[in-house]
Amino acid sequence: MRVRRDPRRRLRAIAQERARLRERLAVLDHQLAHQRAVAADVEVEAAVADTPLAGRERRAAADDARRTARERDEVADRLGALAREQDELLEALSVGAAGRTDQGT
């Protein structure tokens, strides 16, 4: 963990970024569900049509869903990393506070 001069400021920044990323994750979840449904529909249409154009549309729809899934995973990973960093900062603050309390008695 990086040493910070003001861990409380970083905690506030983490809270803001986590809120923003949770909103982004919700949007991506919705988009991904839609894109997977579209990809499934296009897959059926491509099988029925059996044309080169239908095949390209099928691949494009599947690629869109994969890109969105990858972005969603990246956002979820970033949220996890921020949660770990937040836990580390809170632990450091509580250890520091406990040390100051022990010294005062």
Summarize it.
The protein has one domain. The protein has helices at 7-49, 52-104. It has 105 residues and is mostly helical.
Structural class: mainly alpha
Shape: rod-shaped
Query: Quick one: how many beta strands?
Result: 0
Which series of helices and strands comes N to C?
HH
Average pLDDT works out at: 91
Counting structural domains, the number is: 1
As a whole number of angstroms, the C-alpha radius of gyration is 23 Å
- List unreliable stretches of 5+ residues: none
What proportion strand? under 5%
Q: Give the N-to-C terminal Cα separation.
A: 30 Å
| Residues in helix, % | over 70%
Account of the 3D structure:
With 105 residues, the protein is an all-alpha fold. The protein has one domain (9-88). Helix content is 91%, strand content 0%. The chain contains 2 helices and no strands. The protein has helices at 7-49, 52-104. The longest helix has 53 residues, at 52-104. The protein is rod-shaped, with a radius of gyration of 23 Å. 7% of the residues are buried. The model has no long low-confidence stretch (mean pLDDT 91).
Which short descriptors sum up this protein?
mainly alpha; 105 residues; single chain; 91% helix; rod-shaped; 2 helices
Could you give the topology of this structure?
Layout: H1 7-49, H2 52-104
Helix pairs in contact: 1-2
